[in-house]
Amino acid sequence: MRRAIPVVVRGGRGRRAWVAGGLWAGAELAVTFGLLVLLLVAHQLWWTNREARAEAGRTVHSLEREWGADAPVPSAAPPDEQVGARSAPAGTPRASGGKAAGAAKATPRWDQAYAVIRIPRIGITAPIAEGISKAGVLDKGYVGHYVQSAQPGQTGNFALAGHRNTHGEPFRYINRLRAGDQVVVETRDTVYTYVVDSTLPQTSSGDSGTIAAVPHSEVKPSYGYSMPGRYITLTTCTPEFTSTYRLVVWGKLTRSRPR
Fold first, then answer.
1. CB–CB of 210/217 below 8 Å?
2. Could you give the CA distance from residue 56 to residue 121 in angstroms, rounded to a whole number?
3. By the 8 A CB rule, do 152 and 103 touch?
4. Of these residues, 118, 172, 246, 255, which one is catalytic?
5. N or C: less crowded end of the chain, CB within 10 Å?
């Protein structure tokens, strides 16, 4: 009688090994991808802030040395002065030392840091540079000046932009500003004190009226002004970590003095 030769089928074990290897490789890829995402988040939320704040701080110190004097630390205005500032009509700022509120004497070159903004309420000190380019201004932790708007102290609207998240995020907490808070702008020759007047919590990114000479919202007409004056506008993105809409804070010039 002829004996049957046993046949060993190994296909099932081979398929299982192949599946196991594929799962292991997929897990390694997932872990690697997760680590890369975490590194990217850390870079955006921590490293860019660290680098931009250091750069902005060096620029502020450089400007102060160039101007030949340490920048003064603004103190809160007395209550009666704040009330007077809010009730004063637009375009009629008080000037201390007998000097009227003036204008910047020279037009800065593109991306040049030429002023310092201080907002005591939220602890912000940052350089102001000409233009709002990302690489040359905003990503350095600077506050950017809309070139089509007025310069500090001039009649019109001194309009500024700053990052709300990452790259120094100087305007992250401008939503906390309230009527009566000070925004101090220092140039080589003059210190300008603006007082916050109103806030537009959210508007379209294309709402160009917010940085017009007489600032107003074209999207929400109940917000803004109707008369010429000396205004300041702070703009940033909202909600946080998006660039969908814009948050706007407006103020009026109430005082100027020589450095």
1. yes
2. 19
3. yes
4. 246
5. N
pLDDT in tens, 112-123: 999 999 999 999
**163 belongs to the catalytic site:** yes
The H or E element spanning position 195 is: strand 190-204
CATH number at residue 175: 2.40.260.10
Instruction: Report pLDDT digits (tens) over 68-82.
Output: 854 455 544 433 333
Cβ–Cβ under 8 Å, residues 171 and 162: yes
Q: What tokens does 149 get?
A: 């708007």
Q: How confident is the prediction for the chain on average, in pLDDT?
A: 82
Task: Record the pTM.
Answer: 0.73
| Domain housing 253 | 44-258
Distance CA 113, CA 56 (A): 10
Yes or no: say if 100 and 254 are a contact pair by the CB < 8 Å rule. no
Is residue 31 included in any domain, yes or no? no
In 10 A of CB 174, how many CB atoms?
Answer: 24
Is the per-residue pLDDT at 223 higher than 60?
yes
Token reading at 1: 């009688």
Domain annotation covers residue 34: no
Catalytic one of 118, 145, 163, 255? 163
Q: Is 216 a catalytic residue?
A: no
- Does residue 153 sit within a domain? yes
* Tens-place pLDDT, residues 31-84: 555 555 444 544 455 678 999 999 999 999 999 999 985 445 554 443 333 333
Maximum pairwise Cα distance, the chain: 127
Token digits for 205? Answer: 């990114």
Catalytically annotated residue among 164, 167, 237, 255: 237
Instruction: Judge whether 246 counts as a catalytic residue.
Output: yes
Please, are residues 246 and 220 in contact by the beta-carbon 8 Å criterion?
no
What token pair was written down for 204? Answer: 């379209």
